[in-house]
Amino acid sequence: MTNTMETAFAWSLCLSFVVVFISLGPLTYGRVKAGYSAKNMSAPRALFDELSDFGKRAVWCHQNCWESFSIHAPACLLCLISGVISPVAVLAAWIHPFLRIIYIGAYVGDFPPARGLCWVSGVLCSTLLYKEGLTALLSFN
Q1: In 13-122, where do the E strands start and end?
Q2: Range(s) of the domain holding residue 17
Q3: Of 6, 23, 47, 111, which has the fewest Cβ atoms less than 10 A away?
Q4: What is the DSSP letter of 51?
Q5: 114 vs 41, which has greater pLDDT?
């Protein structure tokens, strides 16, 4: 059972990284639609003001995906290192990347209630992983 749980935390870590790359799809679409080309490679952020509202949301969404990954990845690693044995933590680990995929659609699609719900739920999943990881780590007396 422990191996299955460790696998869930490793998969969550990897899938959360994949989510960051999925967010490149809308970002690329928004940039291309605004006229982004190879000549813009020297200053890609200078194009921001020329982006449509969709393109701007795609940029912000991509940035938030990196921020979310920087919170979630250490939580997964903590659970892996401390040997967490908790079905609730496994559930949170699996749910997080899927919430983040829905988040991308809600963000670029401009649906704030769904975006907010996915964001809060994702943060709660990561927080739960930190709680379970620290609990397991501190119980190693």
Answers
A1: none
A2: 2-138
A3: 111
A4: S
A5: 114
Q: Which two tokens stand for residue 19?
A: 């989510």
Long-range contacts of 19-23 (CB under 8 A, 24+ apart): 19/65, 19/68, 19/69, 19/97, 19/100, 19/101, 19/104, 20/62, 20/65, 20/66, 20/69, 22/101, 22/104, 23/58, 23/61, 23/62, 23/65, 23/104
Q: Which residues contact 34 (CB under 8 A, 6 or more apart)?
A: 47, 50, 51, 52, 55
- Cβ burial of 100 (10 Å; 0-12, 13-18, 19+) is buried
DSSP secondary structure of 5-21: HHHHHHHHHHHHHHHHH
Per-residue pLDDT tens for 29-57?
Answer: 998 898 887 777 777 677 888 899 999 99
- What is the rounded distance in angstroms from the CA atom of residue 52 to the CA atom of residue 63? 17
Overall number of domains in the chain = 1
